[in-house]
Amino acid sequence: MELMFLGTGGADWPDTPEEKDSCFRYHASLMIDRKILIDAGPGVLHAAARYPKADLSGIEAVFLTHTHPDHWSTDTMDELLRRLDHPIRLYYHCGAAKNLDLEKAGIHGNGLGEAQRKKLILCPLRKHQKVTVCGITWQQLEANHYAEHGERGSHFLCSKDGVTWFYGCDGGWMITRTWDILRSTLLDGVILDGTLGEDACDFRIAGHNCLQMCRMLGDAMMKQGMLKPEAKLYLSHFGRTTYACGPENMNLLVEQAGFRMAQDGMIISSEAKGVQPAADPQIVKHRTGRVAAEQATQEGMDMMQVQQALAKRFPTMAGIGDSLASGELVSLNPDQSRCYTDYYELSWGQVMAGLIGITFTNYSAGGLTTKTWYERYGTQEGFLQKEHDLYLIGLGANDSNVIGRGEMRLGSFEELRDSAIRGEIEAAQLPSFAGGYGRILHLITTRWPKAQIIVITDPMPTPIGLMVNDLIRQVPEICPKVLVMDLEREESAAYREQELIDAGLWYLGHMTKAGYRYAAKLMLRKMSEMKF
What we know:
elongated; 32% helix; 25 strands; 7-stranded mixed β-sheet; 19 helices; 23% strand; alpha/beta; single chain
């Protein structure tokens, strides 16, 4: 199934771009398999002319969310029917019938010509009705969004060849019946309304989502097992005036909410990838109003027990790492330069802590090497005065880059061993990864000898990173209590960069918020399998 965003803007955007407006968005519209449109607003034809792959000649049906003028235009439909030599079926909730002005002039256009009316086949939908159109199964779902004459908006659930997407623009909180239907569905992708941006709103009555609502909806979908592991989460229908940072700086805020930002002209291709497990076997999933604990596999229940034992044994944990441990997000400045910001509350450590109920302290920051980590944290009272039950060390990625530039040596097993045992600082002119890593191990093992340590290999190593990982794997030969979480050898399939990007988990070389949640659950599973 191929999805193409013809527009991603809310009602406060003009119908056509103003001169030199590089951030312009057409009104929200989605084309699926180049045969179906969701919404035919006033900018659809302009968008199709702008994007070469937006060929409307094969359109056979239009699904209408509601009749607000940014989603429905009889002028657009009239011109589209003029261009085509075949009829179009128009699917809409029966409550929209009073507002569909097909003959008379009005805010939605100047009406349809007689010839065009004959080519338009009206197909009203009952509440939550299913239909099959162009090989795709569609289900109308009621939205928390109202138009004139009591019309309630529609969301759509569409499925084809084992792939299921939910389109949720316009709308605020899900109504109960819609949520119940979604809760019994495993989704490959979600497109939600992000209209209100940073604006504060009353969640109880909002007919659109602000970013905080989107974050809460995304988290709820994940916790209730509604998302496949590689599910793609997007926001669309962005307000032009509701983001204080301006349209050019919205991306970081959307990423922080756990979503990717849909853009006009963006194409998403989704294919089924075989039998998919539930997103989280340890999460109790609700179906049809009943708690389906009996449906959880014994393996999943056993995993829950192991993780509970893990939390009981290690109630305090600490992370020692670089940007992939600090929750760092990357965004683009208006000049296309990159902006890096540590968001510790989004990091895999904090997510893991919330999932199993422990305290996690993060001694990490973007860009750190073993040397700079020791200079920043290893000599500071904040680290030295607080003992933790378990330390997870995730350093090495930046060391690989520095070694590649000739500013650091890789070092040897002997340097790793000597610095881990004696804490010696290498006397060579250039520091080494091995010496710096060993010095961190020495600090922890001598100051807190009862603490457990887990060292983590880089799951996406450079050629130099492969050698760094080889040294990390040798740590247990020096410190027998240390365990290795070998993400490179054991979980490489979970860290294929393009697949992470396609799933919305990776952006400009770093995890997204959703990516850190993904990593947290994978690492928690790995820890649950370890024998301490």
